[in-house]
Amino acid sequence: MSLQRRVEALLEKGDGPFTGSDHALFGEFRSALGRGEVRAAEPEGGRWRVNLWVKRAILLGFRMGRLAPAGTLGGAERFFDKDTFPLKPLALEDGVRLVPGGSAIRDGAYVARGVVCMPPMYVNVGAYVDEGTMIDSHALVGSCAQIGRRVHLSAAAQIGGVLEPVGAMPVIVEDDVLVGGGCGVYEGALVRRGAVLAAGTILTGSTPVLDLVTGATYRRSGDTPLEIPAGAVVVPGSRAATGEHARALGVALYTPVIVKYRDEKTSAATALEEALR
Ligand SMILES: CC(C)(COP(=O)(O)OP(=O)(O)OC[C@H]1O[C@@H](n2cnc3c(N)ncnc32)[C@H](O)[C@@H]1OP(=O)(O)O)[C@@H](O)C(=O)NCCC(=O)NCCS
User: Which ranges of the chain would DSSP assign to H, the alpha helix?
Assistant: First the structure.
């Protein structure tokens, strides 16, 4: 039986009790996630298919887990976590540069060769981070987030997860995107290939994005996430708030704005430093 089928049967158990072989199956599932063979969402002919069973299985892992020592610092037990979510057993041969200092990658996250992780940073379970991506200091890759190749997650960029608050669609950031310093991408936003989020841009499921080039307004609708088009350059902006009081008080609301589509100037401003890789 496929791993998915067996995990789905385990999901039927709800709150348990769970046997040793249930724990072994969860370990098998977590290893498949960690190898990138199972993903919370995956590209399928230009679209993204969400594998809801993966998120449900991760949540089950939290219910199954017991608190246990989760790592040492200076020889002393200093960390405690659910035993179903140990640290990823990284080795030199994996080719990931993990600089010391307050960083962690939970097992069940896929981190490809050539990824650079600057401390402190955190990659949560179910995340998928593809080759050549830079995760800079104070950056978060939330649970199940899908990050493409050569993405730059700049300092303090926050990529939200799906576990809490409850959300079905993971955040997806495609290849060659620059997520500027201090950005936040939450609630299943989909950032298409090569887009640039200027420093401080925040995207959520409720944020409309105004395209000054085409005149379009992008927003989430139903099950379709907020989607930033390929190559869009998004900067923090504002729009007049609606309503009598807003008008009287001159209130404006934060609104991300697409000011242009990537050109040579943008590419020069966002070029990655090969020497750092
Ligand atoms: C988006 C960015 C790459 C600039 O791209 P660019 O293609 O060079 O943009 P341009 O200079 O051609 O600007 C286009 C328009 O957007 C405006 N703009 C550019 N960046 C802006 C920003 N961050 N906020 C608000 N407006 C901005 C410009 O003023 C210009 O408008 P104008 O023609 O009315 O003056 C840059 O602003 C940025 O955010 N870089 C990332 C910085 C960062 O986080 N680095 C991480 C290091 S850890």
Answer: 3-11, 20-34, 52-64, 244-249, 264-270
In this structure, are 56 and 191 located in the same domain? Answer: no
**Within-domain flag for 236:** yes
Cis-peptide, bond into residue 236, ω within 30° of zero: no
pTM over 0.85: yes
Per-residue pLDDT tens over the stretch 105-145: 999 999 999 999 999 999 999 999 999 999 999 999 999 99
28 and 112 in a single domain? The answer is no
Residues 143 and 38 in one domain: no
Task: List the residue whose alpha carbon is closest to atom 31 of ligand 1.
Answer: 259
CATH code, domain with 252: 2.160.10.10
Cα(59) to centroid of ligand 1, in Å? 39
Residue 124 · residue 106 · CB < 8 Å: yes
Smallest CA separation from ligand 1 atom 39, residue: 198
* CA pair distance 73, 155, nearest whole angstrom: 25
Q: Specify the 3-state DSSP secondary structure of 31.
A: helix
The CA distance from 219 to 226, in Å, is 5
CATH no. for residue 8?
1.10.166.10
Q: Does residue 184 belong to any structural domain of this protein?
A: yes
Residue 79 lies in a domain: no
Phi, psi of 25 (to 5 degrees): -65, -40
- Answer yes or no: is 76 within a domain: no
Between the CA of 149 and the centroid of ligand 1 the distance, in Å, is 22
pLDDT digits (tens, 9 = 90+) for 13-30: 988 899 999 999 999 999
Measure 195 CA to ligand 1 centroid, in angstroms: 12
